[in-house]
Write a structure and sequence with these properties.
CATH topology of the largest domain: Chitinase A, domain 3
Number of helices: 8
Number of strands: 22
CATH architecture of the largest domain: Roll
Helix content: 10-25%
Radius of gyration: 27 Å
CATH class of the largest domain: Alpha Beta
Oligomer: single chain
Structural class: mainly beta
Order of helices and strands: HHEEEEEHEHEEEEEEHEHEEEEEEHEHEE
Length: 412
């Protein structure tokens, strides 16, 4: 089992920018419907462009005027650009790649000259920026850009996607659970089904601090997230809150810090932060419970370290060696038979380099005993698992049981 898996899962909501999925057809349809109501963006060349200079030293020239609105801090913008040095040498171009560049205004995701310059434009505008080094990369060289370089950009503001706004809950009933979670059903969906523990749910969300500032949003990315409910893959307030919803429901969750990230700061979230989420439950997929390996009448073997294993099924492939990258399917159980993690449920085998300490000790030891195609039933004492402190949903001093299939040994 991957040591890092539970860390990643527990902080899933903070992985937004790095979390990549193919947008669903439903998401595309919503965007198409929204686009139908928008005014077509057009632009006209400026006959006599005027170069302006801001107090920061940014020089900009509007070369074509668009008919769209101006972005504000927090808006996501889509731009085309070509960047050159003063000698005319090109260092980057989204136009050449045929792929516009998107970023959030005022979030420090681009150089200062861009944050300032793009905020001066309207949708459809084309402009030339002359950005002094202090608003660019300063005294640091960056790729082919020398230190202390003045940068020239031809830019076109193609689109503004306004940041989500908190849903209006005026006049709606606020419910409170025994744990302290507060929630408001903002809009009832047409579904009649609630998700159960272990079900895979697909959710759109925007997370806010109490002051209304967004810290993460799948809506901005246009990519819903998916996770297994009740498996500790998200914060406790989410596991509890989503279980209350039917497919299609939209809810406003007010999550106390005790059900969020607790007393520790996490990324941009300060310690002891109460969090607010607007969530939409898009879909539920029932998880098929993995079939436990048949170990009846088979010998239990014990190694010197205390690891116990049963060969449930013999494969015919090569034996895994330390340093090999291996691919496995697994299901992890507590001693009472409850599943706490499963690559089989996710439909995604797990890969790791053997003997490199990237998984718990019991796994490194056990998989090194296996041949490709083998299926082992492992009983791992806490000393070879998560020790005396536990980890995520795994209690302290927990003996863990795994069914593991070695799918592939990738030799160096």
């Amino acid at each position: 089992m991957n040591k890092a898996f539970k860390t990643i899962a527990a902080f899933f909501l903070m992985a937004g920018l790095a979390y990549a999925q193919t947008p669903t057809k439903g998401t595309d349809k919503k965007k198409e419907q929204a686009d139908k109501g928008k005014t077509a963006i057009t632009s006209k060349p400026v006959k006599k462009p005027i170069t302006m200079k801001t107090t920061s030293g940014l020089e900009y020239t509007i070369t074509a005027k668009g008919n769209g609105k101006k972005p504000v801090s927090g808006d996501k913008v889509k731009v085309h650009y070509t960047g050159t040095l003063l000698d005319g040498s090109k260092f980057d171009s989204s136009v050449d790649r045929g792929q516009p560049f998107s970023f959030k205004i005022g979030a420090g995701q681009v150089i200062k000259g861009w944050d300032e310059g793009i905020a001066l434009l309207n949708e459809g505008d084309k402009a030339t920026f002359k950005i002094p080094a202090e608003l660019g990369y300063g005294g640091q060289a960056m790729g082919s850009i020398p230190a202390n370089s003045t940068l020239m950009f031809d830019v076109e503001l193609l689109e503004i996607v306004q940041s989500p706004k908190p849903w209006d809950i005026t006049g709606k009933k606020v419910e409170k659970t025994a744990s302290g979670l507060e929630y408001v059903i903002v809009k009832k969906g047409t579904g009649t089904k609630k998700p159960g523990k272990g079900d895979k749910v697909k959710v759109h969300y925007t997370g806010y601090f109490k002051d209304g500032k967004i810290f993460d949003s799948s809506v901005e990315r246009g990519e819903p997230i998916e996770f297994q409910l009740g498996k500790g893959q998200v914060i406790k307030g989410w596991d509890e809150g989503l279980a209350l919803l039917n497919i299609g429901d939209k809810a406003h969750l007010i999550i106390p810090y005790t059900l969020a990230y607790g007393e520790q700061a996490r990324g941009p979230i300060p310690a002891k932060s109460d969090l607010v989420f607007d969530v939409e439950l898009i879909d539920i997929q029932e998880t098929v419970k993995p079939a436990a390996f048949n170990i009846e009448g088979k010998e239990t073997q014990t190694t010197a370290s205390g690891l116990k294993y049963i060969v449930a099924e013999k494969g015919r492939g090569i034996q895994a060696q330390n340093g090999n990258k291996v691919k496995v399917h697994y299901t992890g159980y507590f001693e009472n038979g409850e599943i706490f993690d499963s690559s089989v449920e996710r439909g995604q085998p797990f890969e790791f380099p053997l003997g490199q300490g990237q998984v718990i000790k019991g796994w490194d030891e056990a998989v090194a005993l296996m041949h490709q195609g083998d299926k082992f039933h492992l009983i791992i004492p806490y000393t070879l698992a998560y020790g005396e402190s536990g980890y995520g949903p795994i209690p302290a001093k927990a003996t863990l049981v795994f069914d593991v299939e070695l799918i592939e040994v990738m030799q160096n």
